[in-house]
Amino acid sequence: MARLRVEKREDDRRTSRYAGFQPTIHQPSTTGKGAMTSIAAVVQQVAPRIKPNYMDAFQQCDALFAQFGITTPLRIAHFLAQMMHETGGGTVLYESLYYTTADRLLAIFGVGNHSAAIRPEEVDGLLRNEQALAERVYGLGNPPKAKELGNSRPGDGYRYRGSGMLQTTGGANFQRMGDKAGVDFYNNPDLIVAPEHALKPALHEWDEGNLNAAADANDIRTITRRINGGYNGLDDRQAWFDKIYPLVNGDASAPAAAPTSGGIGADDGSVKWLQTALNAAGAKPPLSVDGVSGSATTNAVRTFQQSAGLSVDGIAGPKTRAALANHPAVAA
């Protein structure tokens, strides 16, 4: 879920210098490179279940893509990969907050997993109740998050839940994107998924993060961090890119990825990284690297904290993760 935690540039370089470009792309053919196709055709090919709102937006996307300089295979493929991840292949208009099991809800929004820090005794009133959960997670039931997102009124948590191609979230972001796009998203939040407007917030967010430059470097980690605020779903975003890039590049060759650190890789903030690092540091028994922060992971964190001379609370906070990252078996 994109949280619009991007590094805003001083200058707004989304100018008319791109007005003369058309974002044409290549598609493989039996005769080799050179067969031209539209972005909409690529989208339809990789996402056959895409919502009509989104498909209609891509049918009329050429001028907008050119305006934002998304005119090369790398830029197009990275933009589409992020959008496809955030929307489940174009099938999600609004973030789903419909949870049916306590275990899953607590794994996402429970203590140690989210600032909402939902406790087990709260769960019954939040299961199968999207509005109540949204208010508890993004709204007035979670004051720090509500302030961060600009959700100041009862109901804002649900009203401004993740919406659209990059899952714009929070009243302040609806207002900001609306100001940039010239559309009153704040007072008319459903317009953010209307075909004539759906691309605009995503493109402005892309522009704010200076993501054309990151795409040119094929740096999917930077793109993901600036859109997501972390690295959630990085593997899925990469899988979408790997599917899309050959279509827009006109061949099956993959570009060289941006370099990463050695060892098991830098801490990306994920539970999977935590579990992998704990295993490398000698977790007994070894953890299943499944991305679910259950009791086994908590116990392994406690054991590591004790061995590292840290406060033992079972929560993998910044100090614990830093100690793990510096462990010889992890950093090697």
TrEMBL record:
It comes from the Bacteria. Residues 1-32 are annotated as: Disordered. Residues 269-324 form the Peptidoglycan binding-like domain. SUPFAM superfamilies: Lysozyme-like, PGBD-like. InterPro entries: Cell_Wall_Dynamics_Protein (IPR052354), Lysozyme-like_dom_sf (IPR023346), Peptidoglycan-bd-like (IPR002477), PGBD-like_sf (IPR036365), PGBDSf (IPR036366). Residues 1-15 have a biased composition (Basic and acidic residues). Signal peptide: none annotated. This is Peptidoglycan binding-like domain-containing protein. It comes from Azospirillum griseum.
